[in-house]
Amino acid sequence: MESDLDSRTLKQAIRRQAEASRAAQPDKDELSRAICGRFAALPEYAAAATVLLYVHMRSEVRTQPFLPAAIAQGKRVVVPYCAGDALELFRLESPSELEIGTYGILEPRVPLRGLAAKRVPPEALDLVMVPGVAFDRRGGRAGHGKGYYDRLLRHVRPDATLVGVAYECQLFPQIPMLDHDVFMDKVITEEAVYPGRGRQPRRPPP
User: Where are the domains of the chain?
Assistant: First the structure.
């Protein structure tokens, strides 16, 4: 049986390979449009009132052009931002509410974060777009190893749909998953929508 240490070591190797593949991926704008198009075509998107979308950084699937489109479609768009070791949720009504933060990442403007109308609890989310460094086709995910999304997703309603988005080059046969890791309900790439196992209860070991 693979130990947690072995799983963590393998996961770190997968992260390195996936980050290199993602950085080298050509046509990111075109592929990102295809991925966001598949996301917008989901029946869960049509049914969702409140949708969490991330603001991309570096070589991630590019979501920024999709944000105003989702707002224009009448969605209550929510974006996350880091606050200590947690992700806080912000209702985005215009891209002008974002500014470049400390690490060169677009984030909600600081004066707006404390406004009651801008704060959204994770339990209000109907659909969650989840970034990741690597995925597998059963919904396994490797993030950056900080656990931000894993902690957030514990508070998301069980009936909310979790959708990982990535380039096809970020898919691996199997991501080693630890007890705190969360499986996606779906994984979307430029080529397909893969059904994941989702947040099924784990079977106890024999």
Answer: 4-194
